[in-house]
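wait is this the right file?? whatever heres the structure
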């Protein structure tokens, strides 16, 4: 991309819209205006900043979109399914899960890319992380190119290059972007912004250069951005705002430039509606999918209007705080990390005042084409769709939701830094180059602070265990994160060979899960996991009680039904074989067989327990049923043989025992004469 305009051929008519000249830059060093050099530096900065993520494992929702998604793991063959179903279908493998959150989710572009990567490289998170870094670098370069294009024609080229470069560097370094880049699933945020910025860039080129082909490309890129994530739709407002502020375009001209964006939007919404339907659906009554719920009288009810709006205002203020001072960071802002807020809280009032002031300033200064006004409006427009005001997004807030709005923040910060340098040097003789150098030092210092935080934060995204056990200290009141920590500790404990260490991990897991249920009393998955933990700890009665609580919440909860049956069987075996409490063992086993009438192990244990009690006929009944399921089970055959010896039928006994010995010679030594 060159900063110089080609001369118009003699005699060729041009319109005023093509005359967006860039004034002379001869007073600047050549490298300050070298767009290619700047682009490479921005890209290299991004790659260096996130280089420590490339060897990381999968984390968070990567399971949903990558390694546990039946379409993604089919590679190229799964693309048809990705395009035909909602985003959750490939993971849950049943329809209807689109209604987990209001409006459903249709974001196939990133899943298609994941499927292609799986086709080429298999189950390889390194490739996913590498591609995220490369896409992010390209996005930051595109932001730089777009700003140069937007600011074309301004006489002060020192200012133009400073704003473009400063904004891109601040954006590249900002720690709030770690979730989007360090988490492979976050590619949807990256591609949505890349598609949107690219679409605006080529739209401006079409307008400036009078080349309609660029407008067509803009429409295609915008459609791809929408297919990555619906957030791109906010650019239907950003595009006309950009033309109003940066071009002398009338309403008719702006409307013409919007046509490709409108066509892309209609096409996307049509496809989306054909997959998910038109209805936005009823708000979920599960707190993990709708944070604006509370318990009253042992039932879940919606927040009052004041609570709803106050809580949203608080989160909006939290976003501003994290943009200026991104610490501490966490991947989880689920209830009740953000508590139920009200207008008696000064933080809510302060947040409201900040946004009111921003809105008033932006609207009053917009007719002046003020750049700060533009940045604020960019921020507010792109924030709107993830604010929970337009529609519920399933959680209170998330750092990834700042990925697109932070462009506006970084732009405003760059402009304000420039103005601050001007104000400080007012009344003194200062060259434009010196002013540029002072500004870049300020940008460099802020970017260095941001980059340090980003680089260190990246390490937390190494894997689920590191992420969950780190962030739980920041979000101790998140039921979802407490549940996640408990589940991950349970998973890791199964790999631990030292029994004392394993039991310590399980006990710690149970503590986190208990907190999850304290925060969210009807969190059925937490009860399920507590059942699993106590099963491993051989606290079978506690385990059974937690599964039963889960089933009280959801009687059709199949995982709880299956695990309850397994626990009854384990308890029966433990009390029978270890504690020698045959009657108690039979009590557990009888409950297990009610839930799983054809479970081989339960039938086998029932046969043995009745044999211990001398109830040979019942032994034959249960072992015969077990043999119908697996006729080659050596243990069942041997115990049948033993039962027939008790019935004084040695020939049948020997037949079963010999067959058992043929299958498994170690099951019983050869009988001596």
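ok assuming it is, sequence goes like this
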């Amino acid at each position: 991309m060159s900063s110089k305009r080609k001369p118009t051929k003699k005699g060729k008519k041009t319109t005023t819209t093509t005359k967006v000249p860039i004034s002379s830059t001869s007073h600047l060093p050549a490298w300050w205006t070298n767009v290619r050099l700047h682009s490479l530096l921005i890209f290299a900065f991004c790659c260096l900043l996130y280089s420590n993520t490339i060897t990381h494992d999968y984390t968070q929702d990567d399971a949903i979109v990558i390694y546990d998604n039946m379409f993604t793991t089919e590679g190229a063959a799964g693309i048809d399914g990705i395009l035909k179903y909602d985003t959750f279908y490939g993971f849950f493998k049943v329809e209807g899960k689109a209604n987990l959150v209001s409006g459903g989710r249709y974001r196939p572009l990133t899943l298609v890319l994941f499927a292609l990567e799986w086709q080429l490289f298999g189950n390889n998170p390194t490739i996913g992380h590498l591609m995220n870094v490369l896409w992010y670098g390209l996005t930051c370069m595109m932001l730089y190119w777009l700003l140069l294009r937007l600011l074309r024609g301004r006489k002060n080229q020192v200012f133009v290059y400073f704003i473009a470069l400063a904004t891109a560097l601040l954006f590249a370094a900002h720690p709030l972007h770690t979730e989007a880049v360090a988490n492979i699933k976050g590619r949807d945020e990256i591609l949505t912004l890349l598609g949107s910025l690219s679409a605006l860039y080529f739209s401006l080129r079409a307008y400036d250069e009078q080349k309609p082909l660029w407008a067509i490309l803009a429409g295609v890129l915008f459609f791809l951005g929408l297919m990555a994530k619906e957030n791109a739709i906010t650019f239907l407002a950003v595009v006309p705002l950009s033309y109003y502020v940066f071009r002398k375009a009338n309403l008719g001209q702006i409307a013409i430039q919007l046509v490709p964006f409108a066509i892309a939007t209609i096409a996307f919404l049509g496809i989306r509606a054909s997959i998910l339907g038109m209805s936005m659906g009823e708000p979920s009554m599960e707190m993990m999918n709708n944070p604006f719920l509370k318990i009253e009288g042992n039932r879940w009810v919606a927040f009052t209007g004041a609570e709803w709006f106050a809580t949203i205002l608080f989160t909006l203020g939290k976003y501003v705080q994290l943009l200026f001072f991104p610490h501490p960071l966490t991947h989880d802002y689920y209830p009740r990390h953000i508590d139920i807020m009200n207008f008696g809280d000064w933080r809510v009032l302060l947040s409201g005042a900040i946004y009111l002031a921003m809105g008033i300033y932006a609207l009053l200064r917009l007719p002046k084409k003020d750049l700060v006004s533009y940045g604020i409006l960019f921020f507010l427009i792109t924030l709107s769709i993830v604010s929970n005001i337009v529609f519920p997004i399933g959680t209170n807030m998330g750092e990834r939701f700042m990925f697109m709005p932070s462009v506006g923040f970084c732009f405003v910060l760059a402009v304000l830094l420039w103005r601050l340098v001007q104000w400080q040097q007012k009344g003194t003789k200062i060259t434009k180059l010196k002013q540029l150098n002072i500004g870049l030092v300020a940008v460099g210092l802020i970017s260095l602070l941001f980059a340090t935080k980003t680089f260190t934060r990246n390490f937390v995204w190494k894997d689920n265990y590191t992420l969950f056990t780190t962030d739980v200290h920041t979000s101790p009141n998140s039921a979802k994160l407490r549940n996640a920590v408990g589940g991950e500790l349970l998973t890791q404990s199964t790999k631990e060979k030292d029994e004392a260490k394993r039991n310590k991990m399980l006990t710690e897991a149970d503590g986190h899960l208990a907190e999850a249920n304290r925060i969210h009393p009807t969190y059925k998955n937490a009860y399920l996991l507590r059942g699993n933990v106590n099963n491993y700890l051989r606290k079978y009665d506690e385990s059974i009680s937690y599964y039963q609580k889960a089933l009280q919440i959801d009687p059709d909860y199949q995982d709880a039904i299956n695990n309850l049956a397994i626990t009854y069987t384990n308890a029966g075996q433990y009390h029978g074989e270890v504690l020698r409490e045959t009657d108690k063992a039979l009590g557990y086993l009888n409950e297990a067989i009610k839930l799983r009438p054809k479970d081989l192990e339960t039938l086998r244990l029932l046969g043995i327990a009745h044999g211990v009690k001398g109830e040979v006929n019942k032994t034959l009944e249960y072992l015969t049923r077990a043999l119908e399921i697996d006729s080659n089970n050596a243990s069942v055959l041997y115990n049948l043989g033993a039962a027939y010896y008790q019935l004084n039928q040695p020939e049948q006994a020997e037949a079963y025992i010999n067959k058992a010995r043929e299958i498994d010679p170690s099951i019983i030594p050869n009988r001596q004469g």
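The beta strands are 293-296, 299-302. so i think its the right one actually
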